[in-house]
Each structure stands twice: as structure tokens, then as C-alpha cells.
């Protein structure tokens, strides 16, 4: 299906574009035809997922490919615990698809609205000192490359390309299939608590090392960390999920509806934000529950926001947070959204934010109706001083020359890009900035 482009906007309302043409292929062959046709007409072409990137990574001014018709399981290798999914499959659909096979994804982020191809193309990750981002679960992929041909990358074909293809920023081709290394279904036991921020930071390395998954949120203008600790348990473990009423009160009423009201109030009267944040830490009490992994990892988010996230060496997390705290107070800013801190293992994916080093992630947010520019730029300067790497799908101002200094395999990735898309058929303004022309 082909249509004249209407205005497309991402979820965070940071990007908008009117594509010259929108195509909605339902078969891989149709994707190939679309790429060939774009090449003949001298147009660029890009796939768009769920629009959950805050950066311009998915902006398509030429041909926009909507892959929502390419979803579901393509094949299952039960012996190897590997599953091949169509590229347009949403993360929130995958647990249901894997359940009949007794499988689960090894780790997930706290938002599951993205497509699998979008998630791996931007470096979506969860938390856990012994676990990598979603791209580290990729053991194969099929792409439509610049000349319209199919490229299979697997453990037996073109294996040398896997570290680039597993996190390719959408710059190498259109991902039509992704093969994931899964694990047997498991349960997570979750413990959530409000704790003194200084206590958490003083032993944050030990906390992250001692458990499977650890993260925390910190509301500026307070000294409290809202910690989340998840322990992995076998599938046969008796589950004690939150009751529907408790889930509604905590995750819908307080975390979304009430938070939306407080964000609007803070926008109208910024001076009340410190008081609101201190009230928020009191409303967030301790809770403990257990459920299937995907039901614990992912959180419903309906309050629209914009985000910048940086990966820094894990040992720098306390220092960086202290510098952000000093920055906020010295500038007199009133920040309503919490700062999120997560962790990941080092990996060998070329453009992974955790490539080659144990990593701490620090994410800053603003309500989508607020102007984030001054806050984000000042925080970004702190991150850069700590050799930070920006999340590819979130807001940043970095360019290729700057990023080359923090990615040891940057030029190796560019060589793969030159091989698979020498005409830059899949480029856009964002990719020209972060990768060069």
C-alpha cells in the first residue's frame, strides 16, 4: 500500500516530518520493491517503528516505510532457544508470542511500546549489571540493503557483520527479521522502596553487583531514591502479583494521572515543584510482588515527556549525579521529572553505549510542554566530561567527530555502512550529524 505522506510526529513531539510517500508493505518482497523504487527516483527511504525515539533517528523525509504489517514469529528453534521475529513486531507482543514455547526475552527496558527492529536500532536497554541491552540478544537478522537485495546475518552467514547490524541506527538497511537468543520463562521478584539517596549512592556498586536487576529514580530537590530491585526466579515459582486494585492505584492513578496533574501544575507555577517532588516521594511506598518477567520489567507510561540519556562508566555514577544536583540548584531550575539510573554489562556491539565498559545510565527528562534545551545541554556537558555516550534514540547534540572519541569501533562501523549503503539510501539529517556523510 502506498499513500501520500501526512505529517508524522514522534511520541515525545520532538520531531515532525511530512514524508513524500508512505508505504505499508505486508511482505518482505514489497520492502525490496520499495527500496529499489526509491533508488530509481533518487529518494531516501527509512522504516519507522512506534515513534518512541526522541531523537530524529527515524525521521523520513522521502519514503517512509510503516512495517506494522510485518509482525509475528517467523520461526522457532526450540533446541537452541532462538526465535525469529518479523521486524515490525512490538516488544509488548513478544511475551505472548513466546509463551507457548516456554521462552522469554533475557532482559527488557521499562517501556515496551517499541518495535523489535526499532529497539535494537537505537540501543534500547534495561538494567542489570550482568546483562546487556536488547541488541546483545540478537544472534541474526535479515535486512534489505541499499540495492534492494536481502542480506542474511547469522552465526553461519556474514557473522562478521553481526556486531554492526545488531545496533545499526537504521543506517545499514531495512530490518525485516530479527533472531533473538531467548531464555526459559522466568519469574521476577520485585522489591520497591524509598531510601535515603546518600545511602544508595555510597554503596551503589555493591547494590548493583548483589542483585540481578537494580535501578533507582531520584526526584531533584529531594534526598530520596526510589529503588527497584528484581531477582530472577524459576518459572515454577509461586507468583504473588499485585492485585488489580493496587496496580491501578500505583501505576495508573498515582504514576500517571496524578503525575500528569502535578506536571501541569509545576509548569504553571514552577515554585511549587520542590514541594510536589517531596510529596511524590511520600506517595511512593514500599511494595513487594512477583510475576512473569515481562509484567515486572515494563511500566505503563502515559504522561508525555522528552528525554536525554547518557551512558557513563559505572563507577562515575555517584559523581555525575552529584554534579547534576549542584547544577540544578545553582541555576535555580525547578525540575519536576525524576532522574533515572540503570546499569549494564560491557558488550562487544560496535555502537552500543556499553561497548567495552561496565556502564551506568543516567536519564534526565522534562515534561513535553517544557523547553528542555538549557537543562539538557548543561547536563550533556557534564556527561561529556565523563566520556559519556548518548542513547541513540534520545535527545543529544553530538556530532561524528565528537562521538568518534568515545567509541573505539566507530570507524569500523562506518566501514560496514560504506559497504551496505554506499549511496546513503537510508540516511537522514540525524544520521548525517552523528555518523557523518
Average pLDDT confidence is 93
CATH topology of the largest domain: Vanillyl-alcohol Oxidase, Chain A, domain 3
The largest beta-sheet arranges its strands as: 17-14-16-15-19-20-18-21
- Radius of gyration from the CA trace? 21 Å
Number of domains: 2
Output the CATH class name of the largest domain.
Alpha Beta
> Low-confidence stretches at least 5 residues in length (pLDDT < 50)?
none
Query: Roughly what percent helix?
Result: 25-40%
Q: How would a textbook summarize the main sheet?
A: 8 strands, antiparallel
How far is the first residue's CA from the last residue's CA? 31 Å
Number of helices: 14
Oligomer: single chain
The CATH architecture term of the largest domain is 3-Layer(aba) Sandwich
Give me the count of strands.
Answer: 21
What structural category arises from helix and sheet content?
alpha+beta
Strand percentage: 25-35%
Shape: globular
Word description of this protein:
The protein is an alpha+beta fold and 437 residues long. The protein has two domains: 73-184, Uridine Diphospho-n-acetylenolpyruvylglucosamine Reductase, domain 3; 186-396, 3-Layer(aba) Sandwich (Vanillyl-alcohol Oxidase, Chain A, domain 3). 31% of the residues lie in helices and 25% in strands. It contains 14 helices and 21 strands. It has helices at 28-40, 94-98, 116-122, 162-165, 197-202, 204-210, 244-268, 273-283, 293-297, 317-331, 373-385, 400-404, 410-420, 429-435; strands at 2-4, 8-9, 16-17, 21-23, 45-48, 63-66, 73-77, 82-86, 103-104, 138-144, 150-153, 174-181, 183-184, 186-196, 213-218, 224-234, 287-292, 305-313, 339-344, 359-367, 389-390. An eight-stranded antiparallel β-sheet has the order 17-14-16-15-19-20-18-21. A five-stranded antiparallel β-sheet has the order 7-8-12-10-11. A hairpin with a 4-residue loop joins strand 7 and strand 8 (82-86). It is globular, with a radius of gyration of 21 Å. The protein starts with a strand and ends with a helix. The model has no long low-confidence stretch (mean pLDDT 93). It holds the Pfam family FAD_binding_4. Residues 15-185 form the FAD-binding PCMH-type domain. Keywords: Oxidoreductase. This is FAD-linked oxidoreductase. InterPro entries: ALO_C, FAD-bd_PCMH, FAD-bd_PCMH-like_sf, FAD-bd_PCMH_sub1, FAD-bd_PCMH_sub2, FAD_lactone_oxidase-like, Oxid_FAD_bind_N, Vanillyl_alc_oxidase_C-sub2.
